[in-house]
Amino acid sequence: MSLQPVLIAGQWRAARSTEIFHAANPATDETLPGEFPVSSWADCDAVLNAAAEAANSLRVTPLEQIAQFLTRFAERIEARKADLVELAHAETGLPKAPRLGDVELPRTTNQLRQAAAAALEGSWAMPTIDTKLNIRSMLAPLGPVWVFGPNNFPFAFNGIAGGDFAAAIASGNPVIAKGNTSHPGTSQWLAEEAFAAVTEAGLPPATVQLIYRTSHADGERLAADPRTGALAYTGSRSAGLKLKAAAEQAGKPIYVELSSVNPVLILPGALAERGAKLAEEFTGSCLMGTGQFCTSPSFIVLFAGQAAEQFIGAAKQKLETTPPTPLLSASVRRSLEASVQTLRAAGAELVCGGSPMPAPGSRFANTLLRVSGEKFLTTPEKLQTEAFGNASLVVVVRDAAQAAQVLEHLEGNLTGCVYSDTQGADDALYNQLAPLLRQRVGRLLNDKMPTGVAVSAAMNHGGPFPATGHPGFTAVGIPASLRRFGALHCYDNVRPARLPAALQNRNPNGKMWRLIDGHWSQGDVVV
User: Fold this and answer.
1) Using only C-alpha atoms, what is the Rg of the chain?
2) Least C-beta-crowded within 10 Å: which of 116, 183, 196, 218?
């Protein structure tokens, strides 16, 4: 096997490392070709130096070049689609069709093109002009952004191609991607196309860089480094909190997505009206991607009664008769097993599943657990343990008062959903409970499972802690996602010719929305 290079300062070169790791096919347990390095601090130092230099150049780079890069990168990904899908399938076990080739890869290129359009148009920076006092402000690039991609989306959230990457680049920052160890080869191939697009667009060579893995100590060190502008991290709660602590101690912005059980509240009228259909919706959603979506519904609240028992029985039957698909890795399987054990130790009863499947492959039996509302309220923290994978917990409450208590004990989540009947019988109960859920989730849904995350300007893929580290920002949705990587620059009585183009009297492109003396306008400043 050959040791794969890292991308530093515009060069594919050998890492300064004595440690290596391998990717494995989670469907077969087969070790895949290629050895990948665990970078030492020497590599981290080198990418930070190069990124700091690139950041200075990007601050004066025309927006057209940045947009050209993002567009060209999307085109290059599409041209290499077949190879990328094949490799991502081998490294993650995710289906080539429709998941990788028909859904995730097109979503990725769509994000890149949306980011290109936002960079060109410029309104994301919120230019604000006070003509009376001659004070003007806007968001401007922060500097080098580290992007830590997760294991569950090898394209759409990849550190070198996904939504955080696109937002950081579109807002004028260089990106240092930390590839996920579950799909290092896919990250490498994406980085090859990204660097080729950088060259074609004439951007600084270190606009994009890639390393695959670091020690935990070096991860915390780079988070706090003075050259780091910001960080975006999607992954485990424990590792994310360590990075967050290191970054915040040094005053560095860090946007983390950590854990979410995505509560689904099914009201009695909905259960009576269409319980069998809802059981089908639930099982389809919680098994999608083997439950490894960050918005998978893994916490269901039902009201006690015959309809609730029928729902649980129908879900059990569906879960037991559906063959489990592979998890992303053996480590995900181990983590899922530990989470299920934690839930059971806290009082949850096993309805079905609960154990790993025989080799080959990293599979776990489709799992459903249940607990009473009374029991949940005795240990709510343990019973909200995220079981990342094909496992869900049903909480059976006795009445509205207990349902309200359960909701009041929820941690922050990415999503929350309420199903109610179509004739209005649940409306009073909805009005009582939905406001409690609303405060604990970033996105509230009605009568719809939360698994999909649309790439829409109105989307919020964020939420209260511990879903994310900050409830005011989203990882999906342009232009809002770009603003995470901007610093507010204010200009007081600065001479007109010295102002950034977006703050000069003339609107630079006639499309940019600017707040001029309290009114949003696409026009020029009238003097």
Assistant:
1) 24
2) 196
Measure the CA–CA gap between 252 and 248, rounded to whole angstroms: 5
Alpha helices, DSSP H, located in 95-162: 105-121
Alpha-carbon distance 396 to 96, whole Å? 38
Cα 142–chain centre separation: 20
From residue 439, how far is each of 278, 411, 424 by CA, in Å? 25, 10, 23
Confirm if 236 and 338 have CB atoms less than 8 A apart: no
Q: Do residues 426 and 270 touch, judged by C-beta distance below 8 A?
A: yes
Q: What is the pLDDT of residues 99-121, one digit of tens each?
A: 999 999 999 999 999 999 999 99
Q: Which residue ranges make up each domain of the chain?
A: 6-258+474-482, 263-446
Higher-pLDDT residue of 505, 2: 505
Of 3.30.300.30, 3.40.605.10, 3.40.50.150, 3.20.20.70, the CATH number of 6-258+474-482 is: 3.40.605.10
Calculate helix-pair angle for 81-92, 105-121, nearest 10 degrees. Answer: 120
Q: Strands, E, within 242-346: which ranges? A: 254-257, 263-266, 299-303
* Helices assigned H by DSSP within 145-262: 163-170, 184-201, 216-224, 237-249
Q: How far apart are the C-alpha atoms of 369 and 54, rounded to whole Å? A: 51
Separation CA 193–CA 337 (nearest Å):
37
What is the value of pTM for the model shown? 0.95
Please tell us whether the domain made up of 263-446 is placed in CATH 3.40.309.10. Answer: yes
Catalytic positions are 257, 294
The per-residue pLDDT for range 38-63, each reduced to its tens digit, is: 999 999 999 999 999 999 999 999 99
58: tokens are 């990007």
